[in-house]
Amino acid sequence: MNGPFHIKKILNNNAVVATNASSQELIIIGKGIGFGKALGDFITNHAIDKLYILTNEKEQEQYKTLVHSLEESFIELLNDVITHIEERMQTTLNEHIHVALTDHVAFAVKRLEQGMDIRNPFLSETQTLYPKEYTVAEEVIEEINQSLGIHLPEGEIGFVALHIHSAVTNKSLSDINEHSRLINRLADIIEESLSIKLNRKSINYLRLVRHLRHTIERVEMGEQVDKQEKLAKVLKEEYPLCYNLAWKLIKVMQNTLNKPIPEAEAVYLTMHLQRLT
To answer: Which of 7, 28, 97, 246 is the right S-S partner for 266, CB 3.0 to 4.6 Å?
Structure first.
C-alpha cells in the first residue's frame, strides 16, 4: 500500500493512526515514525526505512490496547524482532503477528516475573516440523532475553516458532496447534500400541513426524496419492502389527480432520512404523 499517509493520531514514537488516499484508516508501525510528528502531517514510504501497516480493524483496536498497556521500549523491541523475522524468513509476514507475537511475549514475560512456567508439550515436534522457524525463534528469544535481562524458558522458542509459521503461511494459530496436538496424540498411540518409548530426537522419529505433517497437509489440500495395492498386500503380510496400527492412526486423523484419507497413506505410514520397531 503506497503513501502518502495523513496522520490522524500519534500512538507513540513508533506507531501512528493514519489515513490513505482513499480515506481508509490504518495503523502504521515503523521505527521513529511518530517522533517529531504532529496531527495532520504526511508520511511517505520513503520517509522511513521500514514500515508495517495494519488494515484489519479488529487488529488495529487490539494493537492500540497493547500500545497503551505496554512500555514503549517493549513495543519498539518487538517491532525490531518482527523486522528480524521478516528478513530471516525472506517473506512478507501476515500483519496479525504484530498483535499476536507482541501480546504473547508480553504475557510470557509477566508469567516469568510471577514465577509461573507453562510447559510446551510440542517442543520436539515443532522443532522437527518447522526447523527454519525454530532457528529464527531461537534468535528472537535470545534477543529478547538480552534486551530485557531475563531468561525465558526453552518452551517459548516453540511458541514463537508457531507464531512465525502462522505469519509466514497465513494459517491460523489454532489450526497449527490442532495439527501439533494431533501429531503428539498419534505419537502417544504408537508408543502404547507398540509398547515402546519413542526417542523423539532419533532420525526415524523425525522422518515419521515429517511424514505425518505432509499427510495432514495433503489431506487439507485434497491431494490424492497413487494407490499401492501390491505393496500394501506385501506389507500387510510381512508387518501386520504396523499395518494395522497405520490404519488405526489413519482413522484418528480422519476423525480429527473430518476428511477422508487415501488408502495409499497406510502403505507409507506402515514403512515408517516398521523403522521404529
So the answer is: 246
